[in-house]
Amino acid sequence: MSSTSITPEHPAVEVEGLRKTYHGRAALDGLSLQLASGQIVGLMGDNGSGKTTLLKILAGLLSEWEGEVRVEGRAPGPESKAMVSFLPDASFLADGLRPADAIAQYARFFADFDEAKAREMIDFFALPWDLTLKEMSKGMREKLQISLAMSRRARVYLLDEPISGVDPASRDVILRGIISGFAEDSLMIISTHLIQDVEAIVDSVVFLRGGRILLQGAADELREQHQMGLDALFRKVYAS
Ligand SMILES: Nc1ncnc2c1ncn2[C@@H]1O[C@H](COP(=O)(O)OP(=O)(O)OP(=O)(O)O)[C@@H](O)[C@H]1O
């Protein structure tokens, strides 16, 4: 992906000395990170390592943290939020909505939302137009939410565990949908435990542990340097 990207003047995401505590305990502990656009980044880490906390801060959904955060050169706020499409790990749509209602809701909320693209993705995923979210399976809901999140013309896409809880065949379909929706000059960060599943689509990875970066780099370089796949590398560095 990176070979066709344009080089922006500033990284799409810049984080310096980011610290976030909950009840005095650090979820992010002085984290620094710079990510250029034009790539898909795998954000990986064990349970509680701070992935969701980081994504929520980048999405402008959490306050009361210390450090410097810039998204497309702006501090998290209304301006940065307009450029960020965030897919939370839990369902965020009302149970009674059907796909067309959800599309209408997104169109009202987001100026950069492309309704036609959302319809295309929903058809790509072969989702039923007549079912409400409540009547859909978890995998179907996940696909619908991904269709909506990917149909914004955002500069930064933040996907929190987009393939957790769906069967392996659906994971592949979801990842294909995600790639088809990815504009190559934007930045996408995908948090996941399922490294093997995303390995083929990520350009670079960030491994978190205890709210800090354990390892970061281009996927190809890490594979070459360590002579192993990212999944094996993850297991090795987290076991040590
Ligand atoms: N609302 C909250 N109140 C208190 N503690 C929280 C809250 N949200 C997160 N934490 C704590 O912050 C730390 C980081 O949590 P976070 O959800 O960011 O990790 P994660 O890497 O996304 O984990 P997982 O892989 O399990 O989803 C954990 O210790 C968690 O208990």
UniProtKB/TrEMBL annotation:
Coiled-coil stretches, from where to where? none
SUPFAM superfamilies in UniProt: P-loop containing nucleoside triphosphate hydrolases
The answer to keyword Disulfide bond applying to this record is: no
Task: Identify the species of origin.
Answer: Leucobacter iarius
Keyword hit for ATP-binding? yes
**Recorded superkingdom:** Bacteria
Domain (ABC transporter): give its ranges. Answer: 13-235
InterPro entries from the UniProt entry: AAA+_ATPase, ABC_transporter-like_ATP-bd, P-loop_NTPase
Q: What name has this protein been given in UniProt?
A: ABC transporter ATP-binding protein
Keywords noted in UniProt: ATP-binding, Nucleotide-binding
Q: Which PROSITE patterns match?
A: ABC_TRANSPORTER_2 (PS50893)
Matching entries from CDD domains are given as:
ABC_DR_subfamily_A
Give GO MF terms, alphabetically: ATP binding
